[in-house]
């Protein structure tokens, strides 16, 4: 190889190394910002579709973004409807890199003081139940429950035999958890009921009072057949045919013939009730 050719090859290799070293950081930065670009494209109305292998992972880098926008973006990536209740008005500031989307929802819920409600496999709600702060010392439980009902805006009915004193100190506790804690601490229970319009009513009662509300209902089943093959068997029939019953007889069984099947053998006559035959 001539000297000029050797120097030209050296220069070419050096240029290739420099170009590669320059391109790698740019690619790494582009990959790191992929979640941001995707979210921005989603906000701007672009159709963002995650690769099949990344569908369960989310990358986010948002600052003071509306909660509904962030949830809509996550929902579009994973194919699940994720929505926030209309009264939830929160902003999200968060930076995540390839995190499982359910874990990402948990982080967002904690940051926005929301609770996640899984309506079904295709719908997830972010709700923000009212929080309760109260402090009582030897207070009448009916007074405490009445205050809980007013602060939470819920329908709470208290049975007449619910009595007692409670002492508590609660700070920013969701109203349902506060109600459950107060009721169970006093030894009572909550019965949930729903009206025809879909409103929820919570009744606070004594556990033993529920026994009086139980009832038995019988249903007649028609055209119900057992699985084939089905053979009805009455066990120990022989003991009824071998003995003579004289009382309470509602049926009779007569057998003639001996061991050989002829008429010359012993004849046995027995009587038994249908209940005895069925019980065997």
Any descriptors?
8 helices, 3-stranded mixed beta sheet, 35% helix, 280 residues, alpha+beta
Low-confidence stretches: 26-37, 244-267
Total domains? 4
| Backbone shape | flat
Distance between the amino and carboxyl termini? 109 Å
Protein described:
This protein has 280 residues and is an alpha+beta fold. It has four domains: 29 residues; 94 residues, Phage tail protein beta-alpha-beta fold; 83 residues, Phage tail protein beta-alpha-beta fold (3-Layer(bab) Sandwich), CATH 3.55.50; 43 residues, no CATH class. Helix content is 35%, strand content 28%. Strands 2-5-4 form a three-stranded mixed β-sheet. The protein has a three-stranded mixed β-sheet with strand order 7-10-9. Strands 1-3 form a two-stranded antiparallel sheet. Strand 9 and strand 10 form a beta hairpin.
Task: Describe, in short, the structure shown.
The protein has 280 residues and is an alpha+beta fold.
SSE inventory with pairings:
Layout: H1 3-32, H2 34-43, E1 57-66, H3 67-78, E2 81-84, E3 91-100, H4 101-111, E4 115-120, E5 123-127, E6 131-140, H5 141-152, E7 155-158, E8 165-174, H6 175-185, E9 189-194, E10 200-205, H7 237-241, E11 252-255, E12 268-271, H8 274-279
Parallel strand pairs: 2-5, 7-10
Antiparallel strand pairs: 1-3, 4-5, 6-8, 9-10, 11-12
Helix pairs in contact: 5-6
């Amino acid at each position: 190889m001539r000297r000029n050719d050797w120097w030209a090859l050296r220069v070419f290799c050096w240029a290739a190394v420099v170009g590669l070293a320059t391109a790698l950081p740019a690619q790494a930065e582009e990959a790191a910002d992929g979640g941001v670009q995707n979210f921005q494209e989603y906000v701007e109305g672009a159709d963002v579709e995650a690769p099949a292998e990344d569908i369960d992972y989310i990358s986010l880098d948002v600052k003071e973004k509306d909660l509904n926008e962030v949830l809509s973006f996550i929902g579009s990536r994973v194919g699940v409807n994720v929505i926030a209740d209309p009264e939830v008005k929160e902003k999200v500031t968060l930076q995540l890199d390839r995190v499982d989307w359910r874990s990402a929802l948990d982080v967002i819920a904690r940051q926005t003081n929301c609770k996640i409600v899984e309506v079904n496999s295709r719908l997830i709600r972010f709700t923000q139940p009212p929080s309760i702060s109260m402090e009582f010392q030897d207070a009448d439980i009916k007074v405490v429950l009445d205050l809980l009902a007013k602060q939470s805006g819920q329908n709470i009915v208290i049975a007449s035999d619910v009595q007692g004193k409670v002492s508590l100190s609660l700070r920013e506790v969701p109203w349902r958890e506060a109600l459950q804690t107060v009721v169970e601490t006093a030894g009572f229970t909550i019965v949930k009921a729903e009206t025809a319009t879909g409103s929820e009513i919570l009744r606070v009662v004594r556990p033993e009072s529920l026994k009086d509300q139980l009832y038995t209902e019988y249903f007649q089943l028609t055209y119900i057949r057992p699985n084939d093959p089905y053979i009805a068997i009455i066990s120990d029939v022989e003991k009824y045919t071998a003995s003579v019953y004289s009382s309470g007889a509602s049926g009779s069984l007569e057998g003639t013939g001996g061991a050989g099947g002829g008429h010359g053998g012993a004849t046995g006559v027995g009587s038994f009730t249908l209940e005895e035959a069925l019980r065997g």
